[in-house]
Amino acid sequence: MTDTPPNMPQLLNEAKRWFDDALLAGMTAAGEQPVTAAQAAVFAALDPEGTSISELARRMGVTRQTTHQAVHSLISVGLLQQTPDPSSARSRIVRTTPEGARAHERAQVMLAAVEGVLAERIGVRAGLLRDILTRPWGEPPVLTAGS
Predict the structure, then answer these.
(1) Whether the Cβ atoms of residue 53 and residue 68 lie closer than 8 Å to each other
(2) I need a surface site. Which of 71, 100, 126, 132 has the fewest CB within 10 A?
(3) Cβ-based neighbours of 83, under 8 Å, separated by 6 or more
(4) Which pLDDT does position 34 carry in this prediction?
(5) Whole-number pLDDT of residue 3
(6) pLDDT tens digits, residue range 3-38?
(7) Does the domain made of 22-134 have the CATH classification 1.10.10.10?
(8) What contacts 24+ positions apart, CB below 8 Å, involve 124-131?
């Protein structure tokens, strides 16, 4: 078996894990309620006015059941709440509690600091990386077996 270099999705996943690990360690050191990477993904996918479980699951690329579990674990520690959806009597939306909003804001500040550490380590390429990742990539290509 030959050693093949990691592909781009593997490298991006490792980079995300680096940020997740730094955020969890920093939030824990700051005395914040520890959250998993899956729970943090819920916060990243939430709209300020609230978001349905179905939409959260779609944005996160996971099942509704997985999203439901992450949301309810965050509800149980007081960071999220579910409220009736004003646009649909049958639906509920997920919102941050005041404590959840405060913790999310602290996490955003901490992520900016972690990004600063990355910039110190890799130099101006950190800005280039941010620029590349924020550019529109267009729709994913549909390739055939011979492409």
Answers:
(1) yes
(2) 132
(3) 50, 92, 93, 95
(4) 83
(5) 87
(6) 899 999 999 999 999 999 999 999 999 999 888 888
(7) yes
(8) none
Tell me the Ramachandran region of residue 123: left when phi exceeds 0, alpha when psi lies from -120 to 50, beta otherwise. Answer: left
pLDDT < 50 regions, the chain: none
List C-alpha distances in Å: 89 to 28, 112, 128: 38, 39, 46
Domain layout of the chain by residue ranges: 22-134
Cβ(94)–Cβ(52) below 8 Å: yes
The total of other beta-carbon atoms located within 10 Å of residue 63's CB is: 10
> Nearest CA to 95 among 79, 110, 109, 113?
79
User: What's the token pair of residue 122?
Assistant: 């890799």
Q: How many Cβ atoms from other residues are within 10 Å of residue 2's Cβ? A: 3
